């Protein structure tokens, strides 16, 4: 069992390997959302196939966010910091699921299209919180002496 500390807060993981993968997927999610924004902007301003690439990366992001949510439960988290981690990742998954609907619906519906960008910004913010929650804990074996 790995213990992670930050001041007086505590979080333990029954499966440190799964927790490591949770940390990696949280950063990958952030990177993918950022890359999607770049391709969306390029597609809106320059055309070409950037919007199609944006959609393809979105599909990959959805899979990574699903894996991240599963890892939150597989890692066997315990302690008072467990609930913020679980809730944040559930919210992230729901927002990404909604984003798919807004993205595909935005092809024919101006309201859906108008909500797609702010929801994407919200996704990036929640993904950043999820990554911070995962990375602000230092594994016991990595602490400086």
Question: Could you explain how this protein is built, in words?
Answer:
- There is one protein chain.
- The protein has 145 residues and is of the alpha+beta class.
- It has one domain.
- The chain contains four helices and four strands, in the order ββααβααβ.
- A four-stranded antiparallel beta sheet has the order 3-2-1-4.
- Helix 2 packs antiparallel against helix 3 and helix 3 packs antiparallel against helix 4.
- The longest helix is centred in the N-terminal third of the chain and has 31 residues.
- The C terminus is likely disordered.
Brief characterization of the structure:
With about 140 residues, this protein is α+β, with helices and mostly antiparallel strands. It has one domain (about 10-140).
Please count the helical segments: 4
| Percent helix range | over 70%
Strand content: 5-15%
Number of strands: 4
Order of helices and strands: EEHHEHHE
Main sheet record: 4 strands, antiparallel
Question: What is the terminal separation in angstroms?
Answer: 20 Å
Q: How many discrete domains?
A: 1
Shape: elongated
Q: What does the average pLDDT come to?
A: 87
* Computed Rg: 17 Å
| pLDDT < 50 stretches | 139-145
Based on secondary structure, the structural category is alpha+beta
Q: How are the strands ordered across the major sheet?
A: 3-2-1-4
Notable characteristics:
145 residues; alpha+beta; four-stranded antiparallel beta sheet; 10% strand; disordered C terminus
